[in-house]
Structure formats: C-alpha cells, structure tokens
Amino acid sequence: MTTVENGGSSEARRKKLLFRAQRRGFKEVDLIFGTFAAQEIGTLDDAGLDQLEALLDAPDHDVFAWLKGERPLPAAFDTPVFAKLKALCSRKDPTWNA
C-alpha cells in the first residue's frame, strides 16, 4: 500500500525512498541506489516506486550479487527499475553520488 493510499503525498514517499536509497549500510549499494534515486526518483510512477521499494526491502548482499551477475535474479525483482539499476552499474566510468 502506497503512502498516498494512507493519506500522504507521493512527494513524501519519494523523499522517504531517496533517504532509504542513500543509507542502506552497505557502501557499494548505497552509492548505486543513491545515485539511481537522485537521478530517477522524480520520473518514477507508482509502479516504479513500488519496484524500487521492493528492492530496498531486499538484503543488500543479495541485491549486490544480482547486480554483479553472481546470483540469478529472482523473477519478482526482474523489473524495469532493476534493469535501470543494472544499466547504471554497466556504464563506463560511472559517476557516483557521494
């Protein structure tokens, strides 16, 4: 259930997700999610926000292994948002938000 359905705003939800993306506790994943969220969160629709939130709820080490291709990606996480995260990691000389 989204924040909007609970009486909040989609902007508040975006801010909460941005904060969570930047402070996960695993530095590499913080940089990947933080950079992605800073660049993309304003463009995500409700479905995209749901997909991002699901990834933020997944364990850091699992997400990192999926992004590196070390473990197979579960079907539940094979989403457009994950594809964008993976593309971010695949860029040549990516710039990370610190």
Low-confidence stretches: none
Q: Which of globular, elongated, flat, extended, rod-shaped describes the shape? A: globular
Q: What is the annotated CATH architecture?
A: Orthogonal Bundle
Major sheet attributes: none
CATH class: Mainly Alpha
Order of helices and strands: HHHHH
Rg calculated over all Cα atoms: 13 Å
* Average pLDDT score: 86
Termini gap: 31 Å
Strand content: under 5%
Could you explain the architecture of this structure?
The chain has one domain (10-90): DNA polymerase, domain 1 (Orthogonal Bundle), CATH 1.10.150. Helix content is 60%, strand content 0%. The protein is globular, with a radius of gyration of 13 Å. It is built from five helices and no strands. α1 packs antiparallel against α2 and α1 runs parallel beside α3. By secondary structure, the chain is an all-alpha fold. The model has no long low-confidence stretch (mean pLDDT 86).
Structure at a glance:
This protein is mostly helical. The protein contains 5 helices and no strands.
How are the secondary structure elements laid out?
Blueprint: H1 10-22, H2 27-40, H3 46-57, H4 60-68, H5 80-90
Note the main attributes of this structure.
98 residues, mainly alpha, DNA polymerase, domain 1, 0% strand, globular
